[in-house]
Amino acid sequence: MSGAGAPDFFYREAQRLGYVARSAFKLLQMQKQYKLIKPGSVVLDLGCAPGAWLQVACQSLGPLKNGGAVVGIDVKKVKVPSLHCDSRVQTVAADVMNLSKQQVRELSPKKKGFSVILSDMCPLVSGITSRDAALSFELGMRAVDLAVGRAADIPGDNFQMEGESCTYNPDDNGVLQSRGHLVIKLLESEDTKELNQVCKPLFKKASWLRPKATRSSSREIYLICQDLQS
């Protein structure tokens, strides 16, 4: 169980239903409200530990015959949970901040990119509100950069990888497919508005959500971006 406090409803429900963490209910709520993951979707889960979102994503694909895939990336090595996951789920131990878009794209079936990108990445919380928010914003911007590339036109973009050219490269368009969806977790701050301003023109719809399973003491909020425009 993560965080402080006595086991609550979501923690007990996660145990009862076989989810590895209560965070499963955050994605379940998103699925219910926004229907992001459909049969055949190709899902990228950034910051996938301990694996609860992998479980919900795989369930949302429906039966194995429907196809689709779920790829989880985390700095830790994450074992694919035995419950609610099948052969469509795989995990990769890597630092998202050090991966090129091409490396991420190559993890997708036929290297065609992803139809849904979920970023549940969170910094190691120091307790210093402004510092934690800044680190969270950096992770959020990284998710946007991976998803849409230079289309985001992020001022002062500092995500150029060592050895990458500064000239435009068609491959720098990002790994999210047209009409795809992007979910980003942030620690609420003034900077979160900036991220919304970056994403809003690129997607048909951008909404904020604080899931019911979020702890009352948490400043977590999710930006749900739907239908990437061509």
TrEMBL record:
Highest taxon of the source? Eukaryota
Question: Which Pfam family, any one of them, does this sequence belong to?
Answer: FtsJ
* Protein species of origin: Durio zibethinus
Q: Which GO MF terms does the UniProt record name?
A: rRNA (uridine-2'-O-)-methyltransferase activity
**Alphabetical UniProt keywords:** Methyltransferase, rRNA processing, S-adenosyl-L-methionine, Transferase
Does the keyword section mention Repeat?
no
Instruction: State the name under which the record lists this protein.
Output: rRNA methyltransferase 2, mitochondrial
- Active site per UniProt: 185
The record, for Gene3D superfamilies, names: Vaccinia Virus protein VP39
Give the Ribosomal RNA methyltransferase FtsJ domain ranges: 19-227
Q: Does the keyword Heme apply?
A: no
Record-stated family? Belongs to the class I-like SAM-binding methyltransferase superfamily. RNA methyltransferase RlmE family.
PANTHER family named in the record:
RIBOSOMAL RNA METHYLTRANSFERASE (PTHR10920), RRNA METHYLTRANSFERASE 2, MITOCHONDRIAL (PTHR10920:SF18)
